[in-house]
Amino acid sequence: MANVVVLILGGGKGERLSPLTKVRAKPAIPLAGKYRLIDIPISNCINSQALQIYVLTQFNSASLNQHIANTYRFAPFMKGFVDVLAAQQTPVSPEWFQGTADAVRKILWVIEPWEADYFMILSGDHLYRMDYRPFIEHHITAGADVTISVQPIGPRNASDFGLMKIDSEGIVREFSEKPKGEALKAMEVDTTVVGLDKNEASRKKYLASMGIYIFTKKAMVNLLTHYPDDTDFGKHLIPRAIDEMKVAAYAFDGYWEDIGTIESFYGANLGLLRQPKPAFSFYDMNFPIYTRTRFLPPSKILDSKVKDAMICEGAILKGAELTHSIVGIRSRVERGAVLTDTLLMGADDYETETERVAGLKLGVPPLGIGENSVISKAIIDKNVRIGKNVTITNRDGLENIENDQAGYWIRNGIVIVVKGAIIPDGTTI
User: Per residue in 36-47, pLDDT tens?
Assistant: First the structure.
């Protein structure tokens, strides 16, 4: 894998994930109470021995850059690295990144001198576990200029994706971005070509692009330099490559989730608690997911009821009740608090007893969840202070609301308490 350079795209605004992206980039969003989304593609790369990794950043990238710098430090005698390439203005290119392809175009001057045969393009906001080595081998065996990782899917959500049509050799002949109606029907393919059995192929007649690509160096440089107005891979360069080059499809039939909305983010997190077996699991020591080492103490659970939950390091539960919820690092949940179907992201630091007492004198609740508070179907962002006797249950059944002044949003019926918010005693949401 020494001849592969990896480019992870992490620079988008992530507006559909607001308010979680108001102060951080999408790939920096906490996942499962202790990881960040960027840990997924980087861990996949490390486990696949693809160790020459660049992360392209632009919007709200401070916490993302800090996480990468504090987490991924390879031994000095290795050739591996994880480096951030932030958007910058230059005399040749005075504008910021205008899209996924434009981001790579603007850093070509950094990566083109590498003696690499292949460039692998990944997204920084997907949840999946994938060994990239068979993907790259498939690209080489097919003699392709570009290879696209695709997922066989059924008709229910096919119109949400860019779809591929392939021939009997697995070569992509047509691409359609989020087709509907007759256009969707026209994108049906025989997915036995990519390895599905007949029964499965009858249910999954579409091939959705995962936004994961391998380019030969020559193909990528040619496309980016010959078409300077093409700013996006999926919308522009991939359709053009299909017309002009040999583009192969590589089928990935494992779990994969594009974390593009609050609903998908919430579902992916609580999906980790699914019984009897979750679709995605962090419990695979042969293919681990890495993150920052924090040296936190064990979690302390005192006189509490816990059912179907994940509790991360350094958490403290005192007389609380927890059902189908995730408790993040350094979380504190006080006596009588009840959490159901909730993602609690945790805190960046502990609060000393002196700080807690001083805050209470000023009317500021301590970090964490206060006594007798009830929370259901919610995402509680980091460093939140929720007082006593607070109720967060979306009592009025609202679908969408933005209330920055009060410290919360509602998206798809899910309440999101924004990072660092203070929710006073007795509040009802």
Answer: 999 999 999 999
Q: Is 322 helix (H, G, I), strand (E, B) or coil?
A: strand
The residue-averaged pLDDT of 381-390 equals: 97
pLDDT above 70 (res 283): yes
Superfamily of chain region 300-423: Hexapeptide repeat proteins (2.160.10.10)
Using an 8 Å Cβ cutoff, are 249 and 148 in contact?
yes
User: Residue 96: is its pLDDT beyond 70?
Assistant: no
pLDDT tens column, 216-266: 999 999 999 999 888 889 888 999 999 999 999 999 989 999 998 999 999
User: What's the rounded Cα separation, in Å, for the pair 370 and 390?
Assistant: 8
**Model pTM greater than 0.90?**
yes
Name the CATH superfamily housing domain 4-273: Spore Coat Polysaccharide Biosynthesis Protein SpsA; Chain A (3.90.550.10)
- Whole-angstrom CA distances from 217 to 5, 119, 121, 223, 224 are 10, 6, 12, 10, 11
Domain definitions of the chain by residue range: 4-273, 300-423
d(CA 312, CA 331): 8
Cα distance between residue 318 and residue 273, in whole Å: 22
